[in-house]
Specification:
The protein is mostly helical. The protein is built from 20 helices and no strands. The radius of gyration is 26 Å and the shape is globular. The chain crosses the membrane at residues 37-56, 127-146, 152-173, 185-205, 211-231, 304-324, 330-348, 377-401, 407-427, 439-457, 463-495.
């Protein structure tokens, strides 16, 4: 979106807003034609190298998921719609469509122009862009993974459902920003209740209750109601909170563009609240390591609740993937469960960053290396292990995956090895500092400079480490061998993380000798 492309009604307020955007569009640091051409070049390169071969392969090979009938696809469509709605609301709470540059927001708020005059048009245009992106993404994902677009009738229903999903995602994104927490909880509960009720009705109704046509109609009607209410809430938005969100988004964008995405994510960590005095006993001494970790987790209840859900789900999915096909892991399920455990391991505790700071910053009162790891890692390791094992226990007790004897022993070995590898990958990620300058060196190839791929891999090195590690150990035919390989890879991850903090073999021996 270019600033000078925004149109507003020809009123006095609209003319003043247009003048501000006109001046801002001709600022000195605006995007150049060469910069836009380079962006187009990167998109074209991505399409030619990745998207075109994937689309061709999907069109010439059997579908991964057979839809069968619209009635059978409706429950999955409802589950995806509810997940997208919740995700859009959550994204709006942190970075909504009304977030603009702090300078521009300061200019507008310093006048008597009502917020609806300069925020309403921005919201409409950005919602249109997001809706288009969601529509294209949903259609592409459906085409690559299912056979829904192989028949004309199913394709029309799939397109209608994708259009309703895109509209709901866009307005839920705005709703998440302009409405308070009770309003967001109400919408999330209503979305889940409607999806559950319509799914149950479709199960008992003859003909599947309308199938994907019903999904599309309900999503479109819900998007219309939610969007109307959300746009009416724009004039009453808290401009002070919007200014804080815009300033934080601008700083996060600067971090992301300079190659330190982890610092950008740190800006959106929730601030701990309450229970500060609970960290200290009545005699003035600090509580134990595990107690401190549990109390600190309770000080950020939202992250703690999300971590519990991710660990339970990750443990269950990981176990089912490792136990599939008579002990031979189902790779996709195994990786998905490991990624869930990886995400939950970072949200369950804030001591990972404390460990990084203690290893990188100079000590104030001498070096006491022996207690650093125990003090900072006792709680996250115990919490991740307990949560994953609880999810694994839930999976093993289901009647669909009965395990006995050698099958159960092999599954438990794979689970233990995967858990060790995931914790090591989290350690590797949390020890990350600033972007190494050597990664900016160009990589010449017939397709152009590919150094951007290396930077992207460094930005998401934790996820890359988890996926690559699981892919390697899944190739080992025996469970003991796979577990041994997982432990070896985890040890390498831990050593690499220590080296990131400046703890090479000489530094490690020096600190141990001073302990």
């Amino acid at each position: 979106m270019t600033a000078d492309s925004i149109t507003v009604p020809e009123t006095d307020d609209g003319i003043r807003v247009s003048a501000v955007w006109h001046r801002y569009a001709r600022r000195g640091d605006r995007a150049t034609v060469r910069g836009r051409a380079y962006t187009v070049y990167l998109i074209a390169l991505f399409v030619l190298i990745y998207l075109v071969p994937v689309v061709y392969t999907a069109s010439t090979s059997p579908a991964l998921i057979a839809v069968g009938s619209p009635a059978g696809a409706a429950p999955a469509a409802w589950a995806i719609a509810v997940t997208v709605c919740w995700g859009a609301q959550l994204a709006g709470r942190f970075w909504g469509p009304l977030v603009i540059q702090p300078f521009l927001l300061h200019v507008f708020t310093s006048t008597d122009i009502p917020p609806a005059s300069y925020l309403g048009t921005i919201a409409r245009r950005r919602l249109a862009y997001v809706s288009t992106a969601v529509l294209l993404s949903a259609c592409t994902a459906t085409y690559l993974t299912t056979d829904l677009y192989r028949e004309l009738g199913l394709a029309l229903q799939g397109l209608a459902a994708a259009a309703g999903l895109s509209a709901l995602a866009a307005v839920a994104w705005l709703w998440g920003q302009v409405r308070a927490v009770p309003g967001n909880v109400l919408l999330a509960s209503a979305a889940g209740a409607v999806a559950l009720a319509v799914t149950v009705i479709g199960r008992v109704a003859p003909g599947g209750g309308g199938g994907l046509w019903l999904v599309a109609g309900v999503l479109a009607a819900g998007a219309a109601v939610i969007g109307r209410t959300a746009f009416r809430s724009i004039p009453a938005i808290d401009l002070a909170r919007l200014a804080r969100e815009s300033a934080r988004a601008s700083q996060a964008q600067t971090y992301a563009l300079t190659g330190t995405l982890h610092h950008a994510l740190d800006l959106y960590r929730p601030e701990p609240r309450r229970y500060t005095s609970a960290l200290i006993r009545t005699d003035g001494t600090l509580r134990g390591h595990l107690t401190q970790g549990a109390i600190r987790a309770l000080r950020t209840p939202g992250r703690a609740a999300a971590a519990v859900v991710l660990l339970l789900a990750g443990g269950a999915v990981l176990t089912l993937g490792a136990a599939a096909q008579e002990g031979r892991p189902a790779l996709v399920s195994w990786m998905a469960g490991s990624v869930c455990v990886y995400l939950g391991s970072g949200w369950v505790s804030e001591t990972w960053r404390g460990l990084r700071d203690e290893l990188t910053l100079p000590p104030l009162y001498g070096e006491r290396w022996g207690g650093v790891l125990a003090r900072t890692l006792a709680w996250p390791v115990l919490a991740v292990t307990a949560g994953t094992c609880a999810g694994s226990g839930l999976a093993l007790t289901t009647p669909w995956w009965p395990l006995h004897g050698e099958s159960a022993a092999g599954t438990l070995l794979l689970l233990a090895g995967s858990l060790v590898l995931v914790l090591a990958a989290r350690f590797l990620r949390e020890m990350k500092l600033d972007l190494p300058l050597e990664l900016l060196m160009p990589i010449a190839s017939p397709l152009g400079d590919l150094s951007g791929l290396r930077i992207v891999a460094w930005q998401f090195d934790g996820l890359v480490a988890v996926v690559a590690g699981i892919g390697l150990i899944s190739a080992v035919p025996s469970a003991p061998g796979a577990t041994a390989l997982a432990v070896a890879i985890a040890a390498w991850y831990v050593w690499s993380g220590l080296r990131r903090t400046g703890w090479g073999h000489r530094g490690l021996l020096t600190r141990l000798s001073r302990t």
